[in-house]
Amino acid sequence: STGVAGGNDFQWCFSQVKGAIDEDVAEADIISTVEFNYSGELLATGDKGGRVVIFQHEQESKNRPHLRGEYNVYSTFQSHEPEFDYLKSLEIEEKINKIRWLPQQNAAHFLLSTNDKTIKLWKISERDKRAEGYNLKDEDGRLRDPFRITSLRVPVLMPMDLMVEASPRRIFANAHTYHINSISVNSDHETYLSADDLRINLWHLEITDRSFIFEEPEDPSSRSFFSEIISSISDVKFSHSGRYMMTRDYLSVKVWDLNMENRPVETYQVHEYLRSKLCSLYENDCIFDKFECCWNGSDSAIMTGSYNNFFRMFDRNTRRDITLEASRESSKPRATLKPRKVSTGGKRKKDEISVDSLDFNKKILHTAWHPKDNVIAVAATNNLYIFQDKIN
Amino acid sequence: MSATTAMEVNAEARRILAVSISKLYASRTQRGGLRLHRSLLLSMVMRSARDIYHSSRECEGPSEAQPAQEEPMDTSSSLEEQTGLPEPAQPEPQPTLNSTELPPEEPDSAEEDSDSEITEDKENLSPTRQSRKRRGKVSAAPDFLPSKRARLEPGEERYAAPLGSCRAGAGESLTALSLNRVIPAF
């Protein structure tokens, strides 16, 4: 069957974009993490200002059943505030490094959000009723004079406008010496890992007695000043099946079979044309950018970001790949995304963009793929783009 | 590797070292504090630049297998510079330390011109004429850069490089001062 990357029958089209259009981007609004929940109904983003915004997928409207529903704001809350560590005399950034959802077990939703130092467990619950007719207090909350109460009544639950509340249930602080870069929920739904640059903490301890190291030997012919930096892994993701693992380094994405740790089974070049520009990318710090990667629901395709607001998809079955762009220009409703191409040779074709024209300030570091459908969320600085497959 | 290519690689290695040092200094003031992983990556780039700098210098002279030098850093060339000992067996003069220490204030400025300028001078100078003054656009050493003579760690001792060895160059002292000093700073 045709894949999601470059197949003739498959096309991605624009669905929504969230965030201000203003060219002058406030640093606090820069999106730092994107995550669908297990059902895909909720989509959470975290930003540099410590804020979490959760979007909810609205059901398809009865009037226009042929359109897939949209994601609208469900809840917004301030997860982390800037702090100051007086002992070390340094400021702790409020930037949300990662959000991870817990599987839903009751009506409420739970997620973990973390900055550099503190992980918080948030409970997001809906309230659509409130009790009215208390005996001891007025409707506005003031205590009634007990001597004035002459009769008893049973409070009644009355419907109210839906209110979504977020409350911190647990705060895991002071557990990491270095900066927390990732968290991961275990499949037992009771334990989770948090990792900083040196150590991994396991919360609600569970004993594991074996570990494997996945490492590919370095190709000596491609050695350069920056070999270590570009081979440094910026993201790891298990496949939904649990059989594979994907790693992202600066120039490529690699798929590993968990049964074979000596080399990856698949390697995909994301932007190989940057290899000759590593020195400049080192000077402007772009070489330190940490790109993420993600699987689609069936593990048949993988997606990762690049520069110039480009993002790439690779279909593992058809071996095709596609480059798309998240831009305001292609943000017309249901507009089909046109494949983009970076010209690497001397001759630049029409519609191609040369490497030197790429905007390295427009980087797509965070992407997420709906766990079931062909819906993707792509964070471009302070905007969240949502794309979906074309419904005929 | 041809002599010209070795020279280019040499200049690039020095430039990358300078950029790396300035990044390390700048990272001390960034919000959120020092990032361990990034600092480690910076130090790895500096080590790569140092290794490639050495091997490019090897290609300029008679090719010899160079043993991997980690600790202790060879500070012999500093000693020789200050006492003015000539090394007639050396095919080229030792470059001054100043030419490779660039102020952190201009990490991204085009270093090509000053580097190639300095390289030209270095190639043509005879050992007895070399000046200890900083050349090029840089006129004064910032006071937070390490002094030219590396302070010995307890247990280390200075030793003279064997005569006739083209391995003993300011490459080692560059290493001694840049890496040995900067990394322990945090």
TrEMBL record, chain A:
Superkingdom field: Eukaryota
Protein known as: Serine/threonine-protein phosphatase 2A 55 kDa regulatory subunit B delta isoform
From TrEMBL, chain B:
Organism expressing this protein natively: Nibea albiflora
Source domain of life: Eukaryota
Protein name in the entry: Immediate early response gene 2 protein
